[in-house]
């Protein structure tokens, strides 16, 4: 258990050290009014407490990523622990913090608008397409996964289609109603359930003395799937996820003060990493090796692993509560995925969302498309989701790097992880069967060349942006403090 405990400790230390450094580099302004006050509309913009925002953020970004991803990543062995720690501290948490804080400085803007401002107007259209695609895939995947878990939990006594229908009904309400009506009221309780269930599994591992394997860079995958770049796409939300860039503006519009950003954005990514560590350890420990885990996954997917781990470690009642905690994750990310999609489309076409009917005109087509996508094979959806997810993360990191470059600050904290994942994203799509199906050698060469070209374009654009003195934040000098 030395590797496991060491990684947990490193994640916590990372929050108090590197997280503090990233905050210092960005330069928070506690006296600057946030969009929760300057654009308050009591629908999407309204102030909420730090604790409430933190729990909502954790649920928004989590989904099944820090559970299903690490379970699948466990097939590669303890090296999965390494990516969770390094990815969280130096990539995922930086990504989430910069996305959230830059959004706060710019009217709570979503990623497409930020990309347009800092990477060029063409990127606005590209990122809009990517973001909507990603959010539709997320929303659809996060209808299927909780529905299958609930179906399994109820021994198939309730029809799967009926469960999906109820989840869609909830999503419609959470997408259309003001953020404080459902999300603001229920999510703190759901967040507590999530944390308790993860802690329960972690304590269960310790009490039972489950043999958590120690660090090894050997590829344990039974099918000998290549460790690189697949590990970075298998464990996504548990280390780095572009989906988070679509979620943080929800909370950037409800954050009361910039000084709360490290806890809300950086801290909740670290919390997600700890959850990922627990589930990866459980998957590695309870199935008699990676062959047994592979057999369980083949028989029932990650949902079956969750159910087996929960009941084995916590008994029937505790296991049921733990599974419910896992069910909450995708549901509380699926609803905000649709909400984000609505907000992004509204911002893109400049369609105000104060009126309920205005929200309805955008939401109904989104849900219609998603219902059609539920008929597509889950494994195919998951592969496209992973690639779109990490591609979006790369764009968000380059937005952060551009912002810091223009501000003449240490932009390498975003550029280095962004460049690394850019190579992985290009290599993956060149090699994968859902992409071009090229050989791994050709794909690596293509990934390196493609990354060099795009990074060169980034520096050319960055120098131009700095010379043109692109404003880093919205001008709120005329804001009337009395509205707060």
Automatic annotation (TrEMBL):
Q: So where does this one cross the membrane?
A: 75-98, 126-152, 158-179, 186-207, 227-243, 264-287, 313-333, 360-381, 387-406, 411-430, 442-462
Q: Any keyword Transmembrane helix?
A: yes
Which example biological process does GO assign this protein?
A: cellular response to starvation
Q: Its principal location?
A: membrane
One Gene Ontology cellular component annotation held by this UniProt entry: plasma membrane
Q: How does it sit in the membrane?
A: Multi-pass membrane protein
The record's keywords, sorted A to Z, are: Cell membrane, Membrane, Transmembrane, Transmembrane helix
The domain of life for this entry's organism is Bacteria
Could you tell me where this protein is found in the cell? Cell membrane
Q: What are the CstA N-terminal domain coordinates in residue numbering?
A: 4-145, 164-291
Q: What's this protein's family per the entry?
A: Belongs to the peptide transporter carbon starvation (CstA) (TC 2.A.114) family.
Q: What is this protein called?
A: Carbon starvation protein A
**Protein source organism:** Cytobacillus kochii
Kindly list the organism's lineage: Bacteria, Bacillati, Bacillota, Bacilli, Bacillales
């Amino acid at each position: 258990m030395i590797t496991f405990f060491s990684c947990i400790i490193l994640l916590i230390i990372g929050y108090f050290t590197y997280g503090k450094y990233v905050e210092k580099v960005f330069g928070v302004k506690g006296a600057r009014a946030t969009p929760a006050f300057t654009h308050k509309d009591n629908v999407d913009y309204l102030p909420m407490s730090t604790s409430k925002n933190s729990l909502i953020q954790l649920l928004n970004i989590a989904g099944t990523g820090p559970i299903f991803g690490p379970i699948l990543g466990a097939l590669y062995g303890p090296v999965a622990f390494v990516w969770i720690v390094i990815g969280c501290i130096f990539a995922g948490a930086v990504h989430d913090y910069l996305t959230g804080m830059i959004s706060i400085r710019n009217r709570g803007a979503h990623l497409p608008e930020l990309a347009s401002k800092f990477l060029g107007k063409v990127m606005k259209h590209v990122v809009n397409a990517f973001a909507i695609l990603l959010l539709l895939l997320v929303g659809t995947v996060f209808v299927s996964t909780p529905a299958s878990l609930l179906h399994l939990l109820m021994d198939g006594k309730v029809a799967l289609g009926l469960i999906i229908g109820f989840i869609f009904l909830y999503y419609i309400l959470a997408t259309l109603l003001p953020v404080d009506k459902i999300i603001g009221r229920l999510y703190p309780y759901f967040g507590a359930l999530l944390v308790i269930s993860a802690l329960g599994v972690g304590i269960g591992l310790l009490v039972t003395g489950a043999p958590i394997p120690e660090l090894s860079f050997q590829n344990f995958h039974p099918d000998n799937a290549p460790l690189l770049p697949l590990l970075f796409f298998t464990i996504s939300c548990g280390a780095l996820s572009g989906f988070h860039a679509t979620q943080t503006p929800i909370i950037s519009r409800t954050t009361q003060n910039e000084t709360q950003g490290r806890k809300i954005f950086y801290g909740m990514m670290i919390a997600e990493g700890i959850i990922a560590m627990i589930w990866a350890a459980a998957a590695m420990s309870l199935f008699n090796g990676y062959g047994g885990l592979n057999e369980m996954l083949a028989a029932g997917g990650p949902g079956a692993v969750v159910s087996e781990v929960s009941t084995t470690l916590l008994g029937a009642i505790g296991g049921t509560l733990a599974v419910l905690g896992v069910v909450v994750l995708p549901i509380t990310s699926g609803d905000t995925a649709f909400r984000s999609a609505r907000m992004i489309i509204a911002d893109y076409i400049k369609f105000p969302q104060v009126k309920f009917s205005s929200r309805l005109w955008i939401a109904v087509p989104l849900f219609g498309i998603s219902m059609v996508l539920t008929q597509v094979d889950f494994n195919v959806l998951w592969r496209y989701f992973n690639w779109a997810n990490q591609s979006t993360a790369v764009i968000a990191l380059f937005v952060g790097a551009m912002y810091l470059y223009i501000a003449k600050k240490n932009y390498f904290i975003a550029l280095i992880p962004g460049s690394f994942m850019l190579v992985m994203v290009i290599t993956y799509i060149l090699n994968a069967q859902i992409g071009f199906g090229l050989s791994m050698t050709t794909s690596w060469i293509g990934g390196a060349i493609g990354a060099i070209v795009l990074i060169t374009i980034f520096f050319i654009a960055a120098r131009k942006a700095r010379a043109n003195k692109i404003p880093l934040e919205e001008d709120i000098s005329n804001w009337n403090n009395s509205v707060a």
